[in-house]
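Hi all, long-time lurker, first post. I run a small reading group and we've been trying to get comfortable going from sequence to structure in the token notation. Rather than ask abstract questions, I figured I'd post a concrete chain and ask someone more experienced to write out its structure so we can walk through it together at our next meeting. Sequence below, copied exactly:
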Amino acid sequence: MMKNHSYFSLPEYFHLSMWLDRKLHPFLHVTNTELSGYPIDVHLTQRATQGLSQLSIPLTVEMQLYFSCVVKKRVLIHSSDTQQTYQPAYENLYIKFTCVQADSCSPEEFASHYPGKKQLTAPANMKMHARALYIDYKDNEWLAHYDI
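-- Answer (accepted) --
Happy to help. Here is the structure in token form:
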């Protein structure tokens, strides 16, 4: 993933180095699980499966559909031992999907950092779910994105 991307920057698959890395390290490992009653495919690269096997504390991945001034997909990755609300998806990997709403809609605050949030639990929000999660481990950093 690009660190300094903007709304108008080219997607990562247009960059030659990222395209070449994706060809050399494809998402090979796929596991299927159920998350909030919906099926989800979890795709892992070989680097990610090796990284997960070396962890002493499980990796928790939270996929957020973040409603603020704009709607944004976020992936928060933590190494913690609190998996109570997370679903096991793979060895040393727990996942969760939530819809959240920002406390305020200020473009300046949103650009500098994500404002406070509350979880949306309305029936319509509970119907939204992630279909696939993609996880890679490159240069000692976890990279992830998901599809709805």
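A couple of things your group might point at:
The mean pLDDT is 79.
The longest strand covers residues 93-102.
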